[in-house]
Amino acid sequence: MNLIYDMPLYRPPAEADNLIIQATLGCSFNQCSFCAMYRSKQYKERPFAEVFTDIHQAAALRPDAHRVFLADGDALALPTGHLLDILRELSRSLPQLARVSCYATPANIQRKSAEDLALLQQHKLNLLYVGVESGSDLMLKKITKGATQKRMAEILTKAHASGMKVSATVILGLGGRTHSDEHIDGTIALLNSAPVTYLSTLQLYLDESIEDEFYRKFGEPFEMLDDLAILQEQEKLISGLNPPQTLIFRSNHASNALALAGNLPRDRDKLLQQLREAMAGKRPLRPQYLRGM
Fold it and tell me: Which DSSP category does 289 fall into?
């Protein structure tokens, strides 16, 4: 017996070994110009009966599972009561359950009250994956993210205050060559003002199906950065980060030219040394054929 998923199915790298339950299909926003993940799906909430059947089948397959990822891209869009019912069923079915996580858009965090978020956290939804992408207002507008730097800081702070952990992602190369400095400077400013537990970087990759949309929304000529320029952005980002709390940093996503791991600010010098070795050709980069989303 295997779980049957509505494809395509995506999950963060850290969820590779955990159970995945599709609470929703697609993404309720689905307008980010760089993202093709759910363009083939129409957003909908899955009926309780279907979700609960998946939970029971998953529990039969892995009764000792202790972590669950709620897919697709927008589980936090569900009404709080709906989510609580799913979380309670997960706890009933998986006695060792310790953590539930999901993707969360800025708008969906904003729509939840502080009390709602705290209640969800108490029922083990305690990790949100938030695509920050950039802290630059200009970049956020160009990619149709639906948020500003101020709004991003507010929702990250709100989630943290509820007791949830936040895993934020930033996309290197998002500003192209013209707006590289603005992209990284804005991102540093955001992450130095709002608490996150984890920070990951990806490299910009455009699926052929959305290239035209991305360039049109960008509104000016766009020059993709090469690996050296990407590593320079990474160097600038890590050099400038002085977060309000210690964060766990990773660049282990398959899109990255160089995998890095450490805590910031503690491991800043080590990470910068690895980057500079890579820029000098003394540390190998991931081959292009092994990269992807």
Answer: G
Question: ∠ CA 229-16-283 to the nearest 5 degrees?
Answer: 30
How far apart CA 140 and CA 148 sit, in angstroms, is 6
8: preceding bond cis by omega (within 30 degrees): yes
**Secondary structure class of 282 (helix, strand, coil):** coil
According to DSSP, residue 131 is labeled E
Q: How confident is the model at residue 293 (pLDDT cuts 50, 70, 90)?
A: low
Nearest to 72 by CA among 166, 5, 9: 9
d(C-alpha 79, C-alpha 97), whole Å? 22
pLDDT grade, residue 1 (50/70/90)?
low
Strand 44-45 relative to strand 67-71: parallel, antiparallel, unpaired? unpaired
Full set of structural domains in the chain with CATH: 13-281 (3.20.20.70)
Count Cα neighbours of 95 within 13 Å in the Cβ-side half-sphere.
3
Evaluate the omega torsion of the peptide bond into residue 47 and state whether it is cis, within 30 degrees of 0: no
Q: Structure pTM? A: 0.95
User: What pLDDT, on the 0 to 100 scale, is given for residue 290?
Assistant: 79
Instruction: Tell me the pLDDT band of 236, cut-offs 50, 70 and 90.
Output: very high
Nearest to 183 by CA among 216, 219, 131, 142: 142
Question: Using an 8 Å Cβ cutoff, are 197 and 250 in contact?
Answer: no
